[in-house]
Amino acid sequence: MIESVRRRFVPLAAALAVLLSLTAVLIARGHAAAGHPGADHGAQQLGDPDYGVCRGTDPRCYHDWGNFDPATNGYKVLLFTRTAGPRHANLGPALASGLNPPLTAANVVQNGIIAMGKANGFAVDWTEDLAQVASPNQLFRYNAVIFFSTSRDTLDDAAQTALRQYIRGGGGFVGAHNAFGTEYNWPWYEGLLGGANYYDHGPEQTGTVRITDRRDVSTQSLPSRWGFEDEWYNLVPFPSQVRILATVDESTLTRGVKGSMGHPGHGDLHPVAWCQYYDGGRAWLTTLGHDAALFDLSNTTFPGAAEYRSLLLGGIESAMGMKPFCR
């Protein structure tokens, strides 16, 4: 009898979990749509998780505890690209241990962001070695930490603790592309991403990015609409209490937005970049960044590459406090 009940209950529970997940997406979509797409979604809505920290667009959430002295030390970021699951081709082969290990031409993202830093007045260190991110004191050498297409459980317990203490001490965080497919079982990290996670994506295709907030450093120099090619991530949960900076116009995705796991897309508000204060630090996020051509300056035909680099550069500069953040 008990086994019979169990066999009936388990599929029902699984179906209920899926229903609740999609319901949360629709609720969040409704909350976000209540304001115009570039509105500050700083007020907590019913059902929005708070992750037990100060979060949102109010700069009073920031902890200015004097951990950074750019006048003396300049500006420096740490690029972290360790993968514990799928690895995007634009990351190239896995890196050797240590800080700033040798790169090949195939390590496109690393080479591209290093060049971006050289051209814009900030230094870049790079690693995939957990020993280099194992303590907050190591991370406090950097004005921002960039997770670019990391994947799955890429951090151990020590690195998780170090990242959280770094953010609490006023650190900056930039999460790009598959940073959203990382640390699924860590609620604090989900909150750092803006209360969002990767769920699935539709076909890689060209679509139109819409800038919804022109006040931000990362968007103010971009056209209001620009073509771009990407995988267009669908998100569960949906970002909340953030400032949405850019969206994709789903009507321009001619091959459809439905993802491989059945996500129907986000309708009129499908965010692709946003910012927030979180647990004392700054976080700038974008789901965009799939293709290696984005960092190939000789490739002038890839749609939206120059605009993407401008968007990402502004996000990095603002997250590390080099320019005004999230306003």
UniProtKB/TrEMBL annotation:
Q: Name one Pfam family in it.
A: ThuA
In this chain the ThuA-like domain maps to 76-296
Q: Which SUPFAM superfamilies match?
A: Class I glutamine amidotransferase-like
> What top-level branch of life does the organism fall under?
Bacteria
User: What's the protein name?
Assistant: ThuA domain-containing protein
* Organism name: Paractinoplanes globisporus
